[in-house]
Write a structure and sequence with these properties.
By secondary structure, the chain is mainly α. The protein is built from 20 helices and no strands. This is Major facilitator superfamily (MFS) profile domain-containing protein.
Length: about 425
């Protein structure tokens, strides 16, 4: 078991560095504006581009994961992200900076699902939900690293040294992955996906999407994750400062609270999923309902909300991060090892597609409603409700179909939530 924790720990360390790479540009917005002579609208497109690339790469990354395994993909992702950060460190040209972010997004897309796939290979099935949650939550330490040591280095040493440092850190992280990460425990055999043409790969993706368990994971990931991610990546700080009267430092502190809540909630959600696998969808629907309720309460107010209510808002929506990882647990439940990477990639698209729709939709509403005002933000946050409606509908319909799908195997009204032993290890 010590070997399992060593392999997993090295994978998680690479994922922490990946999150640092992902979030580094977001905390260096003012420095980026000076370096690339870009206005706020151009800088916001970097965030949208990052989400598009990350989401668009999920299925290709999943297919490659099924073909080449976790070790190769973890190392490849680390090297590609390091190249992107090195390009950002060296260039002062906007087009090359965009290319650098594309490389970071591509490498980032390879990392999480690859580390997540190690978990069911090295740990007993009863421990998988908890370890999976810990994987996702520990990765968020990378966001703290970008907000504290990276930002301090950026202010002290400047753009090029700071981005060079994180590029070097990415390469250093790849070294123990090469030496210590193995796809399977010694003596285990794995059947990997055979090389296939585009037509066969397309058929594989269609078949996975046709399985209701995949769609259950997809809509779970979408409905729980998008609100907190759109808040943290783009609109949270402008909303708190411009519409709610927070200072920049107070808004930043509140985002740190968001990370802390996720770190605490992750193991709790994982433990609940492990103990009550027949009730995972009820847990997900409860998390989503709580987010809808708290946002409705805040937006119903005719003026700025009390500070305690905004803190409660951040706490409640931050539980959506751990909740979204239940979607990956569904992928693990219903798909075998040879297609698990692709299934996890499809699930991962859900939350980032919802995030993209929220970020873009809110930007359009804010532009037409007068900018960063209280009333404009009040309208803009309403963009969330259609996305929640889609996710709720998708979960309820796919859950019903998944139950029918499992009726020949398992009897019981909540069988759609069962972690089948044959698919869990």
């Amino acid at each position: 078991m010590r070997r399992a924790y060593l392999v997993w720990g090295v994978g998680v360390s690479v994922y922490v560095i990946a999150v640092l790479q992902r979030t580094s540009f977001g905390v260096s917005g003012l420095a980026a504006a000076d370096r690339f002579h870009a206005g706020p609208s151009v800088l916001s497109e970097f965030v949208v581009l990052q989400v598009i690339v990350y989401a668009g790469m999920q299925i290709p990354a999943g297919l490659m994961l099924d073909r080449f395994g976790s070790r190769a993909m973890v190392v490849t992702g680390a090297v590609v992200m390091a190249c992107g950060q090195a390009l950002l460190a060296a260039t002062g040209t906007l087009s090359l900076a965009i290319l650098g972010r594309i490389l970071v997004g591509c490498g980032d897309a390879c990392t999480f699902i690859s580390v997540l796939r190690l978990v069911p290979r090295w740990f007993p099935s009863r421990r998988v939900p908890l370890i999976s949650q810990l994987t996702a939550m520990l990765g968020q330490l990378g966001q703290i690293m970008s907000a504290v040591p990276f930002l301090a280095l950026l202010h002290l040493a400047g753009w090029s040294p700071a981005y060079t440092a994180v590029a070097v850190l990415g390469l250093l992280g790849a070294v123990p992955a090469v030496l210590l990460v193995r796809d399977l425990p010694p003596g285990s055999a794995e059947v990997r996906a055979a090389p296939a043409g585009l037509r066969q790969l397309g058929g594989q993706v269609r078949a996975l999407w046709a399985h209701p368990g995949t769609r259950l994971g997809f809509f779970t990931h979408m409905g729980t994750m998008f609100s907190t991610t759109a808040f943290a990546l783009m609109w949270g700080v402008p909303y708190l400062v411009s519409a709610q009267g927070f200072s920049q430092s107070a808004a930043g502190w509140l985002l740190t609270v968001s990370v802390g809540v996720a770190l605490v909630a992750g193991p709790v959600v994982g433990e609940l999923c492990g103990r009550f696998p027949l009730r995972r969808s009820q847990l997900v629907l409860g998390i989503m309902t709580a987010a809808v309720a708290i946002w409705t309460t805040v937006l119903a107010l005719g003026g700025p909300a009390p500070r305690w209510l905004l803190v409660l808002l951040v706490v409640v929506i931050s539980v959506g991060g751990p909740g979204s990882n239940v979607g990956f647990d569904y992928a693990r439940t219903f798909h075998s090892g040879s297609t698990l990477g692709t299934a996890q990639g499809i699930v991962n698209i859900g939350g980032f597609l919802g995030t993209l729709l929220a970020i873009e939709g809110m930007g359009l509403v804010l532009g037409r409603a007068g900018g960063y005002t209280f009333d404009a933000f009040r309208l803009a946050w309403l963009v969330q409700y259609p996305i929640w409606a889609i996710a709720f509908t998708g979960i309820l319909l796919s859950r019903r179909k998944t139950r029918r799908h499992l009726e020949p195997v398992v009897a019981g009204p909540a069988s759609a939530d069962l972690a089948l032993p044959s698919a869990a290890g």
